[in-house]
Design goal:
This protein has eight helices and ten strands. The protein is an alpha/beta fold. α1 runs parallel beside α8.
Length: 248
């Protein structure tokens, strides 16, 4: 699907604001939660390969922490084969990019070609109800910038409204973490993990089209300047849609 997109200067490198959540504590499990490694590193690499400049920030700034299950070195072995994240984690140069992030306080959408919001468990705690973050996403979208969100980062779209008061996702087709995936995750750990489920909440909204694909399969959707990815295996797919929209 296509729509009106702000055309940027083709003679300069495209610039991406890659946003990751700050550390928090889950109200349902009591676990420390953060961003999901693959949702940061896989898009990062796709953008690097496209020749883009990437700036990693977080809502509040400071050091970031990843969800344990997303760590390739976690004893669970859940993400043991994620060699991209392992390489990023082991590289001092790249690790430094998440050890002291800038906040979003002075972000001007005019300085970027796109925003890419990653997920993880923290967004379900720190993004929901975050008016400042919702305003930032709306500002990017209303400036004609590519606005991408993946996995649990898409919970922002449940509440983000444009300057006319309408939900950003009104009339849009989009995706996010599916109920079937939440059920699988809960069964895997033996308890309820998330305080709410994105698919449940999205289907309560009028005038929007929330879609999901098979569990844990890469799936991303572009509707005009809005790009969304279903879960942690969809980061690179969403990044490719951003690259397709922006060109190299």
């Amino acid at each position: 699907m296509t729509g009106n997109i702000n055309v940027t200067n083709p003679s300069r490198k495209k610039r991406i604001l890659l946003l990751a959540a700050n550390p928090a504590t889950s109200p349902t499990t009591g676990w420390p939660v953060g961003f999901w490694w693959a949702e940061l590193t896989h898009p990062y690499w796709a953008f690097v390969e496209a020749g883009y400049e990437i700036e990693i920030r977080s809502p509040e700034g400071g050091a970031l922490q990843a969800d344990g299950f997303s760590d390739p070195e976690d004893p669970s072995g859940y993400s043991a084969d994620d060699i991209l994240s392992l390489g990023f984690k082991k590289s001092a140069k790249h690790r430094a990019l998440i050890e002291d992030t800038k906040s979003i306080a002075d972000v001007n959408p005019a300085n970027y070609d796109a925003i890419f919001v990653t997920g993880g468990q923290s967004p379900m705690v720190t993004f929901r109800g975050n008016a400042r973050l919702q305003r930032l996403v709306a500002d990017f979208f209303e400036a004609g910038k590519i606005t991408a969100l993946v996995c649990h980062g898409t919970c922002l779209l449940l509440e983000t409204r444009l300057s006319n008061g309408e939900l950003l996702v009104k009339g849009k087709t989009w995706t996010g973490f599916a109920n079937a995936e939440e059920q699988f995750a809960d069964s895997f750990v033996g308890k309820r993990i998330q305080p709410f489920w994105i698919e449940d909440e999205a289907r309560k909204l009028d005038g929007t089209n929330f879609v999901v694909d098979q569990m844990f399969r890469d799936f991303a959707v572009r509707d005009g300047s809005l790009v969304t990815g279903q879960q942690q295996f969809s980061g690179a797919a969403a990044a490719r849609l951003v690259i397709e929209a922006l060109g190299r």
